Structure formats: C-alpha cells, structure tokens
C-alpha cells in the first residue's frame, strides 16, 4: 500500500452514506461521501487519529502562524450526536470527505466501476482520504479530502428506498387478455 504522506489514510471496510461520487452534491458542489467507522474499529481509528495529528502539526507550521488554535474543528465526528436525524450514525464515528475532483471508483475486482448503481449509501468500501489544515474566514480546523474508493461489500441500503427489482420481486406479472384495455 502506497501512502505518500503521514496525512493520507486508507480507511478500510467502512460503510458509506450520502454517496455523491458520480455527480457533485447540489449542496456543496463537490464530490463527497460520509464515511461511517464503527466505534470498535481500533485499526482505522488509530490511522485516522495519527493522520489528523500530522495535519495539525503541518497546520501549526504552515497555516496557523506557529501555534495550535484554541478552537479547532475536527473532521472525525461522534455519530451519536447525529443519530436522532441519521440512525445510520449510531455506534459510529463519521467523516465527511469532499473534493472538487471526481474520485476514482473501483469495484471489488479492482477494476473501474462501470455500473454506478453498485456504489450506494449502505455499501462498504476502502476509502483513500487526505487530512489537511485550513483557515478560512476565521474558521480553523482539519478537513478531509476524498481521493479514491474501492467497494468491498454490499450492505443494506440507507437511502430510504430499495431497488425497483426488490420492491416488485414478489409481484406476479400478468399478461393482458384480449378483453382488457391496458391503454386506459
């Protein structure tokens, strides 16, 4: 695995939510995804926290004038605080990763994903991200840039609706008889 900087991480087997990787989000006008990390996932959390600390050091040196700001926004958020509005966040930490450039998206065979419907809110993936310090309009913190995604497993959809195939799987299709007018 090639990690170029100490601020870059591949978050492994995380659940995805709010997947906007084929078209930018209308809200942010960026490609984005919410990455859900189970609170018991010590390996991913250790990597993420180390990268955030490295981004803080870089921020002190290059962005914040030599000192750590007293109030600093973090990209790693406690899902319990959002669980009332978004139940998928319960028992998780989450990160919102964004980028103005479209991420590369691979399927489970490490080939470019061709069918966009295969990457959805609720599936699992490895997600390559980079953490960086910012100081914008008086707001200071660490943000997370989305790089690439590789789907690793299917999961229950979080979008609020299922596929058309699943919705109508148990319905018997009947052919019209000559006596019936299906055109209305």
Detailed description of the structure:
- The protein is of the alpha+beta class.
- It has helices spanning 42-62, 164-167; strands at residues 8-20, 31-38, 77-78, 92-99, 104-106, 124-136, 139-153.
- The longest helix is centred in the N-terminal third of the chain and has 21 residues, at 42-62.
List the helices and strands and how they pair.
Elements: E1 8-20, E2 31-38, H1 42-62, E3 77-78, E4 92-99, E5 104-106, E6 124-136, E7 139-153, H2 164-167
Parallel strand pairs: 5-7
Antiparallel strand pairs: 1-2, 1-6, 2-4, 3-4, 6-7
Briefly, what is this?
The chain is of the alpha+beta class.
Q: What's the CATH topology label?
A: OB fold (Dihydrolipoamide Acetyltransferase, E2P)
Individual helix count: 2
Number of strands: 7
Indicate the mean pLDDT. 91
Bin the helical content.
10-25%
Q: CATH superfamily, called what? A: Nucleic acid-binding proteins
Q: What CATH first level would be assigned?
A: Mainly Beta
Order of helices and strands: EEHEEEEEH
Sequence stretches where pLDDT stays below 50 over 5 or more residues: none
Shape: elongated
Strand content: 25-35%
* Biggest sheet strand line-up: 3-4-2-1-6-7-5
* Cα distance spanning the termini: 60 Å
């Amino acid at each position: 695995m090639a990690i170029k900087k100490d601020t870059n991480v591949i978050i492994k087997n995380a659940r995805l939510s709010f997947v906007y990787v084929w078209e930018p989000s209308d809200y942010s006008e960026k490609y984005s995804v919410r990455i859900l990390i189970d609170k018991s996932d010590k390996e991913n959390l250790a990597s993420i926290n180390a990268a955030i600390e490295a981004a803080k050091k870089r921020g002190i040196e290059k962005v914040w004038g030599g000192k750590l700001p007293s109030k600093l926004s973090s990209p790693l958020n406690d899902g319990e605080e959002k669980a009332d509005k978004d139940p998928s966040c319960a028992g998780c930490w989450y990160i919102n990763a964004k980028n103005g450039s479209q991420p590369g998206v691979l399927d489970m065979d490490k080939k470019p994903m061709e069918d966009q419907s295969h990457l959805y809110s609720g599936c699992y993936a490895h997600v390559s991200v980079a953490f960086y310090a910012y100081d914008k309009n008086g707001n200071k913190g660490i943000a997370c840039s989305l790089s690439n995604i590789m789907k690793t497993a299917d999961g229950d959809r979080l979008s609020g609706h299922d596929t058309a195939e699943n919705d109508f799987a148990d319905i018997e299709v009947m052919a019209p008889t000559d006596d019936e007018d299906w055109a209305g």
